[in-house]
Every structure is written in structure tokens, then in C-alpha cells.
Design brief:
The protein has 472 residues and is an alpha/beta fold. The chain folds into 2 domains: 3-57 and 393-409 and 433-453, Roll (Urease, subunit C, domain 1); 60-384, TIM Barrel, CATH 3.20.20. The chain contains 14 helices and 21 strands. It has helices spanning 35-40, 80-89, 107-118, 137-150, 169-182, 193-206, 212-216, 220-236, 250-261, 272-276, 279-283, 306-316, 355-364, 370-384; strands spanning 3-7, 10-13, 16-19, 21-25, 28-33, 47-50, 55-58, 60-62, 70-71, 74-75, 92-101, 125-132, 154-158, 185-189, 242-244, 266-270, 321-322, 402-412, 432-442, 445-449, 452-453. Strands 8-11-12-13-14-15-16-17 form an 8-stranded parallel β-sheet. A 7-stranded mixed β-sheet has the order 3-2-7-18-19-20-21. A 4-stranded mixed β-sheet has the order 5-4-1-6. Helix 5 (169-182) packs across helix 8, helix 8 (220-236) packs parallel to helix 9 (250-261) and helix 13 (355-364) runs antiparallel to helix 14 (370-384). The two termini are 40 Å apart. Bound molecules: N-(aminocarbonyl)-beta-alanine and zinc ion (ZN) (2 copies).
């Protein structure tokens, strides 16, 4: 690996952007230098990369992915291998995926099984959150072990999906009490699953079976209501840290904003699909096409002000993170399971490859600053989930996870253009965005350069995470 010097670029961090040369030694960033200092100090390297007219940014940190996730009779179509290679193509050098436990299962068995699936198969570094779908005395006891011994410092609960991962309010409260005591972050899928199930059954009984009914039976009010309940339960649990996942509705954002204004430890993420795609333009496409965009929470109507509010939330930090909720399914044999019955369509959109690109377009459009792009996609996810300063920022001593970004190039997203995820369509087909991932480095090893993946499967290591650095 040796010493690599990245010269003439503009380094971007949440606190600013400046001309600096970055010296990497082995797996670590060892220095940032004012450019003329490199000669003055006689700094040498085995390899020099010219980053003139480029941004030099931390590798992306995507804290919400689902590789090879079992869903009904199928699995999300990216394995840890294909999904982490696609992530690298998108300038992502760390993912946090999920180990899972359901009623009657042992938490540690689920974690061990997930380790077995990921170990040796990842091209980039990875960590796990722990989904707890069966809250009981035993699973609650396991939370201490997760954080103290396993490096898993966040749990995920579901207010949706009754009969699968769903937890009732009493279970949520108990889990939050235990997690809060330990400083563990509770991530919440906040939708009122009980009410949604009534609407779904009514729609099917009426013959409303097209993909669009997926969204119409998951209205924004039921995301707002569940978010409100989650926030209140976290408060009653002693201000237990709460992180709302895949927030899509203005109704939910209002609840998060109110809680944050009160000083509660409440955080939220949104995903590029909620910022760029809509119910009318995508989910409502004729025939079965809309199945490509069936995900939960669902795409929202462009006739309301969800997208405008989400961008505002990103600017004012009510939304702290952009993740992808990467959960890809092919149309053939997978989404098609729901032909004639939208309730059987596997839920999920693939996007791990495109988050950095789509969010950079937000910079170009003037929605967020360059620094906020890095903050929401790299630094804050690392800080919130106990990985900073090792990940998420280019700092002396940090892992050398670095992306060289060409702001003057463009990227065309699409199945016959830039597309490396293991799926037969792209949710962002035909998007032409400014900017391009040029070079990607993970712990000093080049993964992407000259339009080639030159990394290795197995390079990615499991990251033991600490507690969140964002708690108030
Ligand atoms: O549609 C989605 N989001 N699928 C993945 C599972 C989840 O709810 O996050
Ligand atoms: Zn979810
Ligand atoms: Zn998810």
C-alpha cells in the first residue's frame, strides 16, 4: 500500500472546504498540508494522485442498507459482495446493515448468522444494527451484550409489519428503557402498521390491487402519528436516544422538529428516493411498472409539500442523515410476486450506488451546501452511530477512506449507463446528474479508478462501533 499523496484538490469537511494535500500512510490519513508545505517539508510518497479541480471528500457512510435480506419468499437481490461493490462505485466506503431477531429467536443467533453471511464477502467496511422483532426478557438482556461486547450500539424496532417484526407500544417502551439506560440508539420504522393493515385489506377487498395502492394505504398521517408516538415513548423512557428511519412525510418531520426543539435526543434520516421521486411520477406508472418504486415508507405525493419540507429539514438539521434504505429487488421473479396484489410486492428500492451522486445534485441545485452534503452523507452518520473519527471525515489518524470527486463531469444513471447493483432496473433510470465518482479509496486501498473496480472482495472488515457522539 505504501504512502499516497493526494495533491491539488479541495478537501471538504462539515466545517469548510480548503485547498490541502492529503498524505496517506498504509491504511491511515497521516496529514493534511497547505499545498506549498509539501515541498517545503520534503514530503514524499510512493504514489501521487493529482486531484486538481476535484473535491477530496470522506468516503460515504450509508447507515441503512439491507443486503440479502429475507422478505417473504425471496431475498433482496444484492449480496454482501455485489452490494458492497456497487456501494464502492458510488463513493461509499462504509455500510451499516442489520442483523435480525424475530419472536422465538435468540438475538445472538441472528447476529452470528449475519456475521456468517458478511464475513469475507465485503469490498468495503461494514457494521450491523440489531433488529429486535421479538421484544421479551431474553432479547432485552441481550442489548447489553450487543453494545458491550459485540460493537453493535443500535437496535431497530418496527411499528409497522404486524405479524413479522412489529412491536407494540409496551414492547417499544421496555426496549427504549433498556437501550436508553445503556446509551444505545433505538432506530424506528415509524408507521402505524395496525391501521395500515386495515386499509390494505379494504383496498384488496375492493379490487384495488395496483402498486399505487401501496402508497394510498400508507398515508402520511400514519407516518406522522407513529413518529409522534415513538417520540413520546422515547421521552417517557427517560429521553432514550431515538432515530427515525426513512422519513418521507412532512407530518413526521414536524414531530421530529418539535421534539428536537424541546431538546430531546431525537434524530432522523431521509433517503434520496423521497427527495427525488414521487407517487404520481413513479409509483402511479401504468400497469405493474409502479412496483419498481414500492418501498416503505412509500413515495409521497408531489401535490403536497413533502419534498420541499425534507430539503428544508436537511438544511436546518431536523434531518441529520441521508441514507439509502438500499433494499433492491428485480422486477422478474421478485417484484412480480405481487402481480395482481400489491401487498405481495417485496418492499424496497436499490440505491446504495447513487446516494452521493443524487445528493451532490442537491448541492448544484442550491438545496444544500457542499459542506452539508459531506456532513449528512459521511460525517454525521459516522458520529451518530459511533464510528467517528475513524470514519466520516478526513482527519489525521482516521481511516484513509477517501473519494476524489469530479464536480465538472456528469453521471447518467440507468441500467445501460452507470449501474452496478444486482437488479434488472434502476429506480433512478435516466437521471443525469452533475458530478462523478472518480477515485475511491478504503483504508488506503484503491477500490475504484479509471472506471474500473480494482478492489477485492474480503477487503471489507467488520467495524465494532461505540456509542453515539451526537447525544445531548
Ligand atoms: O421498503 C423497505 N424500506 N424495505 C426494507 C425494509 C424496511 O422497512 O426498512
Ligand atoms: Zn423500515
Ligand atoms: Zn430499511
Amino acid at each position: 500500500m505504501g504512502r499516497i499523496l493526494i495533491r491539488n484538490g479541495t478537501v471538504v469537511s462539515p466545517s469548510g472546504s480548503w485547498a490541502a494535500d492529503v498524505l496517506v500512510d498504509g491504511e491511515i490519513v497521516v496529514g493534511l498540508f497547505e499545498p506549498s508545505a509539501v515541498e517545503a517539508l520534503g514530503i514524499t510518497a510512493d504514489r501521487t494522485i493529482d486531484a486538481a479541480a476535484r473535491y477530496v471528500i470522506p468516503g460515504g457512510v450509508d447507515v441503512h442498507t439491507h443486503m440479502q435480506l429475507p422478505m417473504g419468499p425471496t431475498f433482496s437481490s444484492d449480496t454482501f459482495e455485489t452490494g458492497t461493490i456497487a456501494a464502492a462505485w458510488g463513493g461509499v466506503t462504509t455500510i451499516v446493515d442489520f442483523a435480525s431477531q424475530q419472536v422465538g429467536e435468540r438475538v445472538m443467533d441472528g447476529l452470528e448468522a449475519r456475521h456468517g453471511e458478511a464475513a469475507g464477502n465485503c469490498a468495503i467496511d461494514y457494521a450491523f444494527h440489531q433488529t429486535i422483532g421479538g421484544v421479551d426478557d431474553e432479547s432485552l438482556l441481550a442489548i447489553r451484550q450487543l453494545v458491550e461486547r459485540e460493537g453493535v450500539s443500535s437496535i431497530k424496532l418496527f411499528m409497522a409489519y404486524p405479524g413479522a417484526y412489529y412491536s407494540d407500544d409496551g414492547q417499544i417502551l421496555r426496549a427504549m428503557q433498556v437501550a436508553g439506560e445503556l446509551g444505545v440508539m433505538t432506530m424506528m420504522h415509524a408507521e402505524n402498521g395496525i391501521a395500515i393493515d386495515v386499509l390494505r385489506a379494504q383496498a384488496i377487498a375492493k379490487g384495488d390491487t395496483d402498486p399505487i395502492f401501496h402508497a394510498l394505504t400508507r398515508p402520511p398521517e400514519l407516518e406522522g402519528e407513529a413518529t409522534h408516538r415513538a417520540v413520546q415513548l422515547a421521552k417517557v423512557a427517560g429521553d432514550a436516544p431515538l432515530y427515525i428511519v426513512h422519513l418521507s412525510a412532512a407530518d413526521a418531520l414536524e414531530e421530529v422538529a418539535r421534539a428536537r426543539h424541546r431538546g430531546q435526543n431525537v434524530f432522523a434520516e431521509t433517503c434520496p428516493q423521497y427527495l427525488w421521486l414521487s407517487l404520481e411520477e413513479h409509483l402511479a406508472q401504468p400497469g405493474f411498472e409502479g412496483a419498481k418504486w414500492v418501498c416503505s415508507t412509500p413515495l409521497r405525493s408531489s401535490h403536497d409539500h413533502h419534498q420541499r419540507d425534507l430539503w428544508t429539514g436537511l438544511r436546518n438539521d431536523d434531518l441529520a442523515v441521508v441514507s439509502t434504505d438500499h433494499c433492491p429487488f428485480c422486477m422478474k421473479d421478485q417484484k412480480e410476486l405481487g402481480l395482481g396484489d400489491f401487498t405481495a410486492i417485496p418492499n424496497g428500492i436499490g440505491g446504495v450506488e447513487h446516494r452521493m451522486e443524487l445528493m451532490f445534485q442537491g448541492v448544484v441545485n442550491g438545496e444544500i451546501t457542499l459542506e452539508r452534503w459531506v456532513e449528512t452523507c459521511c460525517t454525521t452518520p459516522a458520529r451518530l452511530f459511533g464510528m467517528h473519527p475513524q470514519k466520516g471525515e478526513i482527519l489525521p489518524g482516521a481511516d484513509a477512506d477517501i473519494v476524489i470527486w469530479d464536480p465538472n463531469a456528469t453521471t447518467t444513471i440507468g441500467i445501460n449507463d452507470k449501474h452496478h447493483m444486482n437488479m434488472d432496473h434502476s429506480a433512478f433510470e435516466g437521471f443525469v446528474v452533475d458530478g462523478r465518482v472518480e477515485t475511491v479509496m478504503s483504508r488506503g486501498k484503491i477500490l475504484i479508478e479509471n472506471d474500473q473496480f480494482v478492489g477485492t472482495v474480503g477487503h471489507g472488515q467488520f467495524l465494532k462501533r461505540g456509542l453515539s457522539a451526537e447525544l445531548r
